[in-house]
Write a structure and sequence with these properties.
It is a single chain. The chain has a domain at 1-41. It has ten helices and eight strands. The protein has helices at residues 2-16, 24-35, 49-66, 79-86, 97-122, 147-153, 155-158, 160-163, 180-184, 254-263, and strands at 71-75, 125-129, 132-134, 175-177, 190-197, 200-207, 214-221, 225-228. A hairpin with a 6-residue loop joins strand 6 and strand 7 (214-221).
Length: 267
């Protein structure tokens, strides 16, 4: 288990060469917590969609209310939905595929709403692991509109902005996230893991309200966990339109503030 390797490496580092400037009792507490890190991890097996819904709706709120939890990981949000809807059971044969997709979209909206409510109520981060599918481009149909207009209005073109098919350097990938447009509109941020060449994996920010799109090459080791190792791709230069707000010339001095307050006092 990766977490066990990281905890063991940190314990060895703190024991063999403890950092300077930190009290010995704090280091002892850290080593003790690393030795029992597994006691603070709660694991639930969601074997099917019904079990997953019951755990998220009823059991997870109780766990968050009784314990101090900082992170909830759903791995993966896709598997049970694929098993439930992509492989039609005997009870679903009578339903058409559009009806099944509509029901899946409804269930996804309910799941996302529940997780967002829990995140706000208990101040917890939620990570929903998605899967990928192959990216097939549809052939352009011949219609009344021009090919350029058809390209701008097509789902393949618009999906580039929320699927991460095209990265910040204009390179198109062969994979795209599963669950389609519905799930893309329900999540707050999308981070995509891309394998460029054997032994090199990039972490990409497709969209997020907290960070602009970009990517970096990362690695996982027992000593450092997940860490950046530099990027083989240069990020494009992006002009910050709010840069003037952070200019040193725009900082008010205490004298300026005092003048403003004095001028606003009633005479």
């Amino acid at each position: 288990m990766r977490l066990e390797q990281i905890a063991s490496a940190l314990s060895s580092q703190l024991t063999g060469s403890p950092p300077t400037g930190i009290p010995a009792e704090d280091i002892d507490k850290a080593i003790e917590r690393l030795a029992t890190h597994g006691d603070r991890i709660y694991y639930y097996n969601c074997s099917d969609l019904e079990t997953q819904e019951h755990i998220v709706t009823y059991q997870l709120p109780v766990v968050l209310a009784r314990n101090k939890v900082g992170l909830v990981i759903l791995d993966s949000v896709t598997s049970n939905y694929r098993a439930e809807f992509d492989r039609a059971s005997s009870s679903q044969i009578k339903h058409s595929q559009p009806a099944q997709m509509a029901q899946r979209s409804k269930d996804l909206r309910k799941l996302a709403g529940t997780l967002k409510d829990l995140a706000v109520e208990f101040n917890v981060a939620v990570v929903a692991v998605n899967q990928v599918t192959d990216n097939f481009r549809r052939p352009s149909s011949q219609g009344a509109m021009s090919s350029q207009e058809e390209e701008l209005l097509s789902l393949d073109y618009q999906a580039k902005w929320f699927d991460g098919i095209v990265d910040e350097n204009g390179v198109e990938t062969t994979k795209k996230p599963a669950l389609g447009l519905v799930w893309a509109n329900l999540i707050t941020s999308r981070i995509m893991l891309v394998k460029d060449v054997p032994g090199q994996t990039r972490m990409r920010v497709v969209f997020s309200p907290y960070a602009r799109p970009g990517s970096l090459v990362y690695a996982i080791s027992a000593e450092a966990g997940v860490h950046a190792v530099g990027s083989s791709r240069e990020e494009p230069e992006v002009k910050d339109e709010y840069e003037f707000l952070r200019s040193e010339d725009m900082v008010f001095s205490d004298f300026d503030v005092e003048d403003i307050l004095t001028s606003q006092k009633p005479k």
